[in-house]
Amino acid sequence: MPCVQLTALEDHQALDNLQGVNSALVTGAASGLGREIALDLARRGWRLVLPVRTATRAHDVVAAVRTMGAPAPLVVECDLSDHVAVRRMCRTVAGEGRLDLVVNNAAVGGGADPALRETNAAGVELRMAVNAITPHLIARELSGALTSAGRIVQVGSMGQLPLDLDDLNHERDYAGIRAYCRSKVALVMSAIELARDGVPVNVVHPAREMPTPMVIEGGFPIASTLDDGTLAVLRVALDSELADVRGAYFHRFERAQPHEQALDAHARGRVVAWIEDRVA
């Protein structure tokens, strides 16, 4: 099931009744950092749009939002590794009303078995599919649905490794954590190119290892809290001083230099062309 109609679970609230309410789409909001970002926005009175694989994964977030008296979240079922479904989800969301913010937080980590190469249904390596291609596609498709001051934040990582431009689908000498780190360089490349086309998008490394399912699965020691990461993401999302900043990479609260390959126009062009070919 690639995608189903938008719903607010038990008590869908028409968007006509939400005029004047800020609206944010947050991916990966069922747990971890995405959940904390979504709940922080809900506490501020924002309406949430939550793409999740199955609606049941959003029950906990929806229940928490209800206790705050915030607008009921709108939940859309969508497999974020399926780019046909992602495009359909974006068109559905765009048809429901304007957005003020998009936070692409969902990601696939190195995996419990770092030697296991996974792909989506189209044969694209899973970390590139979810961590780089899907945020690129969502940013591209939803940029037209943003309000004039709207922003897109791609959650990146300080863990960055150069891509093999002749093996962007990671078919040789596979290692999950290496694929993850390469996908995060591709994410920065995507943001730079999207910004050149006028998309208001930036990338932020939120914090060192937080207690997220990805980090726990990978067996990494916890170094930061979810609040640490949430504050960094929301600063890039909401700080008025960054209203005109596009195509930038932030290391937590400071603008920083990404991996040097992301700044190589030739390499960036090849990677983004490859991404675009996957979603053409």
TrEMBL record:
Matches recorded under Gene3D superfamilies: NAD(P)-binding Rossmann-like Domain
Statement: the UniProt record of this protein carries the keyword Kinase: no
InterPro entries reported for this sequence: NAD(P)-bd_dom_sf (IPR036291), SDR_fam (IPR002347)
GO function terms (MF aspect): oxidoreductase activity
Keyword Oxidoreductase: yes
Record's keyword terms, sorted: Oxidoreductase
Family designation: Belongs to the short-chain dehydrogenases/reductases (SDR) family.
Protein name from the UniProt record: SDR family NAD(P)-dependent oxidoreductase
Lineage, opening ranks: Bacteria, Bacillati, Actinomycetota, Actinomycetes, Kitasatosporales
